[in-house]
């Protein structure tokens, strides 16, 4: 085999999954038909859970250097913002950063980690058999064939990989479109944002850089136009005037595009040796800024599982858990964007509903419910049925401040930069080091510490196993009658083949 894994598509999701694999020493290549990362701003928001995950890989300083933290999100452009500042995390904000910048950052990291990136290389076919996968691609030197043990289709909404695997893309076609432009608005006060929905339509304006603004318009008179119909600057300008009454001197478009509410989901996220992630697995109205975020979370869910399989320590059920865990999360994403589409479309009919929703969002609990959804803080996985029951099992690993045996303090996400399992022993049992077979579990980082600061649920934890993607595999309570036996049984279930 040429590679452990071939990743098809070098958008944010392909770059992330390839990096996760390389981090775990898997030989991985990425095939991308474009010469360079996207020049377009596309996804502008990196939401709190994605920021946490990127923090677990040590990327926060570079992200903060390039992006702008904003402590709020929105749902369907309702006038009451979602308050992310109340989230229990240091990443309690959305980072405003153009996808063009995010992709550059992800590509730089992928290269440093050793991903073999082949650009201007278009995949033409993919076939699989019992032992591996064969990909045919056309690059600068003509057509060639590559083989690997596994492949990941991160090749976007039109995914060739998905089509060639024969995986159905179930859902509905677009019923309306909106327009966007990255433009100069010389008559808009610097840094100002606009969000307004009326009977005529909706408009949202946010700064992308110092001089460029993202303008999104839903103009009732132009929402039936097909997505592929190009947008002109004049069209955007007239729609701004119709919907908002001002065009702020709009000029110099860097990007004009139309997007729709087609909503589809791959029937299954894998077929034998090939996996789908990101837009290849689901498309929807880009409302609330979630598509790239969910795709990056899928990449991180899949990467360590494939690496575990290739590195020889994956339990039998691990690869199947990718679909089992992520399919329902993306179903929830699709339903959430469909609800937003209803609040955006047919504005004359829904204006009263928008007002009602906006007032309900002033109730902190209602606001927190939607903030949890858009930030993805509500995502958790089914608790391990064989582990002693614990409220933390399957939950998001929120950052702890640990006091190490030396007395120094450590933020727990730092332990996850290498993408390994982390076994946190918090009960100060002096025998702990000897009772775990560290030679067998070389891929698990063991840490003995006490908790200096933590959210709820950690008060009485004896030991917890943290997955490489930042979820809690299991936690053993100190009241457990034989905690060390439970720890070893948990390690055997999660960290050994069979
Ligand atoms: C207007 C707009 C605004 C958005 N705003 C947000 C936002 O704020 N937040 C958010 O999270 N998401 C947002 N999104 C969604 C986000 O842009 C996508 O979800 C994200 O790009 C998906 O990443 P991906 O890597 O799965 O797919 P893509 O970014 O589509 O990447 C797929 C890559 O595969 C390559 N490829 C395809 N076929 C082949 C082939 N046969 N061979 C080789 N290479 C191939 C393509 O060239 C492409 O580079 C927005 C989208 C739009 C359109």
UniProtKB/TrEMBL annotation:
<dbReference type="Pfam" id="PF21274">
    <property type="entry name" value="Rng_hyd_C"/>
</dbReference>
<feature type="domain" description="FAD-binding">
    <location>
        <begin position="4"/>
        <end position="337"/>
    </location>
</feature>
<dbReference type="GO" id="GO:0016709">
    <property type="term" value="F:oxidoreductase activity, acting on paired donors, with incorporation or reduction of molecular oxygen, NAD(P)H as one donor, and incorporation of one atom of oxygen"/>
</dbReference>
<dbReference type="GO" id="GO:0071949">
    <property type="term" value="F:FAD binding"/>
</dbReference>
<dbReference type="InterPro" id="IPR002938">
    <property type="entry name" value="FAD-bd"/>
</dbReference>
<dbReference type="Pfam" id="PF01494">
    <property type="entry name" value="FAD_binding_3"/>
</dbReference>
<dbReference type="InterPro" id="IPR036188">
    <property type="entry name" value="FAD/NAD-bd_sf"/>
</dbReference>
<keyword id="KW-0285">Flavoprotein</keyword>
<dbReference type="InterPro" id="IPR050641">
    <property type="entry name" value="RIFMO-like"/>
</dbReference>
<protein>
    <recommendedName>
        <fullName>FAD-binding domain-containing protein</fullName>
    </recommendedName>
</protein>
<keyword id="KW-0274">FAD</keyword>
